[in-house]
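USER:
I would value a second opinion on how I read folds in token form. Give me a protein, with the fold worked out from its sequence. Write it directly below this note and I will take it from there.

ASSISTANT:
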Amino acid sequence: LGVDVFFGGGRFGGADRVEVGGATLVFRRAVLATGSRPALPPIPGLAEAGFLTNETVFDLAERPARLAVIGGGAIGCELAQAFARLGSRVTLLESGPRLLPRDDPDAAAVVVAALSRDGVDVRTGIRIERVEPADAAARLAMAGEALEADRILVATGRVPNVEDAGLDAAGIESGPGGVRVDDRLRTTNPRVWAAGDVVGPLRFTHLSDAHARIAVRNALFPGSAKASDLVVPWVTYTDPEVAHVGHTPESAAEAGIEVDTFTVELRDVDRAILDGTTGGFVRVHARKGKGEIVGATLVAPHAGETIGEVTLAMTAGIGLAKLSETIHPYPTVAEALRRTGDAHRRKSLTPRAKWVIEKWLAWRR
């Protein structure tokens, strides 16, 4: 496509130049997209004992008999379940009170039940004091007990790659969460934009793609695209999947938004009954008294394929009433979304509206 590619460790040499492989590239505009790497918890002995991350775990040539997973977020839950199904004895250790802390608590409970059925030993509220060597393995010392594992998988989040980029030379400010940008993804150097994991706080491949489109548009053209306009879904690829977009009731309350919540259990959805996958739900949050969708959580097989419909509705300003009017194929799990719209319409039937309808129908007789 006519792009000049330079291989090597690149770093800013000034406000308008990048140095790479002995060459100096002068630019009018630049985009910083150095990504992120796995975050490592400050556990004494962990580095010496050796560990896996979501980037190195796929280099394993043999299945570990005993796997300790540190971190109960999306990556930890996904890989814990995968290795349990491969036959490893998996222990999932989370320092917080529950798994998937950014997701709906009921969704997290469904995932915990699924992990337990697959044989994962889920432990929350765990503080690992140190890691010690053991015979052909490692020992994780915790309060009052110890856990031996053949391999340790660390899944405690990600940190931005900013240390070796020469940001100071370019006048680009950064912090623990990443590079400082405005709503148009412009850094404190007016010539440089940043996109993807290096910006944070959400770090998803699909968000990096959306960031890239905004950064390039605003850098090269008279652009006004804003990152705050993005409606960002995310999916935890366990079985069942947990898909989320927008607010939870807790985050909505923090933002001063009152919500009505509509939930359809999969045990009431014919397709889920047919498939034997009734242990989930579809939950939509709408602005109180209105049909404006402000968030949703789906817990179902392939929920990630369905959350796009809600994301589109939120992006386009399509409310629950329109979801109710939209014909969904039967039988599908997505039909549950229409039923949340039906529930909204029933709730919006005020006593006065009901009285008017009753009078109208009585007159029509």
